[in-house]
Structures are given as C-alpha cells and as structure tokens.
Sequence to fold (310 residues):
Amino acid sequence: GCASYDVFVLRCGYLPLYHMMSLLHHLPSRTQVETPGHYGSLEEYFRHYQSPRQPISRPIAASDSSSHGTEDLPPMTITHPAGCFTQFLQFFGPKIFILWRLALLKKRIILFSPPPIGVVCYRVYCACLLASHVLATELNTDSNPQFYVNVADIDQLKTVGNYIACTTEKIFQSKRDLFDVFVDNQNITTTQPRLEPVLRLTLADEQRYQHLSNVRSNQLITAGGVGAGRSWDDELGFAEFFQEQNSQLFRTVMDAASSEDHVLTVEMVSSLGLDPVRDQVFLTELASVYGLNVTVQRQTSMFDFFSCCV
Fold:
C-alpha cells in the first residue's frame, strides 16, 4: 500500500518561504507512516522552526571580471521551486543586476514569455528575492508579486503602485501605461527615458556577477561536488548574498542622509561595489523612492572631460 501526507507551511509573505525548503526535507515522514494519527514530531518541528532564521553575513567585494553574454545561455526549464534561483542566475547572467536595481526602485515589471508559464512564475519569485534586506527599519522593499496576469487583470493592474508579474500575452507590450519595464526573455526595455541608464550593464555588474559565480563555485567544492550543489544551499546562499548587499547599500545611504552635508560620496559608492558614474541615476532614484535626503556626488568621467575640452 501507499500512504501520503500533505504538509502546508503558512508564512506572512512569499519571501520567507525559501527558508522552509530544506527544513521540510527533514520531516520525520517514516514516523508518520508507522504511527498514523500521532503528530508529536510535527508539533515539535513546528515549535522548533516557527522563528525565522537569521541571515548569514557574506562579503560582497567585487573580484576581477570577465565578459558574460546571455545569448547562448540554456533555457530555464525548472519545474519545481527548488533550484529555481540557480537557473534564474544562469538565464539572465550579469543582467540579474539590472533586475536587482529595478526591483529596489519598486518599478512595475512585466516578464513576458511564450507558454508554458510555470517557469516564468518562478522568475517572478526569484526577482522579488533580489530586493530583500535584513535591516530593522521601515524601508519597505516589497516587490508585490502578482505572478501570472492576462488581459482580464488590466483594470486591476492600473491600481497597483508597484509589482512584478508575468504573462504569455504579447499584447501587454503595447499597454505602456501598465508597466515601467518589460522583460521579453533576456531583453529588458523601459517606458521611462530616465531609467535608460539603469538598464545598462556596468563593469561593476560584471564584477559582482563573477563574484557571485565564484561564491557558488566555492559552495559546490565545499559541498563535495556538482551534484550536491544543485540543492537548497544554492537558494539560501544567493538569497543571503542579496540580503547582505541590500542591507549594506541602505545602511550606507542612510548614513549619508544623516550626515551634516547629506552627500553620498564617490568613496561611499565605490565601497558598495557600484560605479560612481554609471550608477548615479540609480542611486539618485533610490534615495527619492525611499524618501532619503541624499545628494549623490558626481564624478566626472573621462568622456565628460574630453567633451568639454573639444
């Protein structure tokens, strides 16, 4: 015979769910089969894990970069949330940091892809994880995931301030009042001209992508091989990487806001692994979105220097 049990985990939002995956793998399921109707072990499990886990600090310093294109990357074909972030990273390559910036800026983002839609829903989930942080502040970075939407949801989307959603209906691309950013597979476009600089890859993006890839490689070696790496450790490591990065970013910007001159200096920006020139628009928008009184110090690029001297 066969016995099966359904176990549901309720959380206050989507973002904390990834913490539960590895824990559920260790449920004493054999005990439930041998002693049906006795749920003492499940109750113990609940009491032990009902408090959220604390994030692990990780260094986020950039390392030497190399160019990573996305044209020849394999398709994202996962059919279960476990492992979705690994393939999300591989699918977008360094462009994951463009999505990171857009998620932090709380933009209305639609991800388009032909059917099946399941894989794209996982991309929505992963994109929402990019904006999480662990600071004890009132900074709300919730990306408001809507998951799958179609033409029947147009009126509802008009009332939403920010969201990340996915669709299989290309007609959404013509509804430019509904979104700020449209992602067609790996092609990212915007309806807001001022966001164009945010959509450009920088050397800092390449460096952070290389560093993140190195972090994963080190985890694989520690875990004892490639097979072991395609597990929950990837999801936890990547989520904590972005949590720590965002926490450091907000901490630095808030320090600048509380300083006497309210200036986010070039040195501060560089310490975050960001580009003082190309990330200036992003940082200015970030301060505006979260109501932080900060002026981003401008660093003159060599292009500006030669332009003014011609």
